[in-house]
Amino acid sequence: MALVPRKHSLFGDRFLDDFWAPAATDGDGKAFFAPMVDIREKGDHYEITAELPGVKKEDIHVTVHDGVLTLEAETEQEDKEEKDGRLIRQERRYGRFLRSFDLGGDVHEADISARFEDGVLTLRAPKLKEKPAGQRRIEIG
């Protein structure tokens, strides 16, 4: 099967110890969260769904480079005056979201599509059409 999530420190023991902490840092040392995803194989394509609550469509970037599909988004914390009362606990995430997937050899990269609805990003990655297996006789002319 193709479409394998790329490994980050998110998948170690630290993930279980501190679910809400930033998952990892990128090459520039910037912290990010890795959104949880579902990956389904659906006949002629793979479907990836990622929850991105509070993210605006225009703040989501999906790219493919060298066989790696990357989704990236960023949200900023609102600066509100304390007129609505004192904040006691804050569990909503703000910051950078980043998740990458190795596509493998059976995904048609040029036809990957995306839609964003109700805080859920859905990516559709069509499979390459399989070549018929077997042997073919070549006529000699």
Question: How would you sum up this structure, described in words?
Answer:
With 141 residues, the protein is mainly beta. The protein has one domain (4-78, 93-126): Immunoglobulin-like, CATH 2.60.40. 4% of the residues lie in helices and 38% in strands. It has one helix spanning 13-17; strands at 4-5, 24-25, 31-32, 37-42, 45-51, 60-65, 68-75, 95-102, 113-117, 120-126. The strands form three sheets. A four-stranded antiparallel β-sheet has the order 1-8-7-6, with no helix packed on it. Strand 4 (37-42) and strand 5 (45-51) form a beta hairpin. The longest helix has 5 residues, at 13-17. The model is unreliable at 9-22 (pLDDT under 50).
Structure characteristics:
single chain, 141 residues, mainly beta, Immunoglobulin-like, four-stranded antiparallel β-sheet, elongated
Q: Which helices and strands, and how do they pair?
A:
Blueprint: E1 4-5, H1 13-17, E2 24-25, E3 31-32, E4 37-42, E5 45-51, E6 60-65, E7 68-75, E8 95-102, E9 113-117, E10 120-126
Antiparallel strand pairs: 1-8, 2-3, 4-5, 5-10, 6-7, 7-8, 9-10
Please provide the ordered H/E string of secondary-structure elements: EHEEEEEEEEE
Distance between the termini: 41 Å
Count of helical stretches: 1
Total individual domains: 1
Helix content: under 10%
* Assigned CATH architecture: Sandwich
* Strand order within the widest beta sheet: 1-8-7-6
CATH topology: Immunoglobulin-like
Indicate the mean pLDDT: 77
Beta-strand proportion: 35-45%
Q: pLDDT below 50 for ≥5 consecutive residues: which ranges?
A: 9-22
By secondary-structure content and strand pairing, the structural class works out as mainly beta
What about the largest sheet? 4 strands, antiparallel
Inertia-based shape: elongated
Radius of gyration: 20 Å
Instruction: Name the CATH class.
Output: Mainly Beta
Query: How many distinct beta strands?
Result: 10
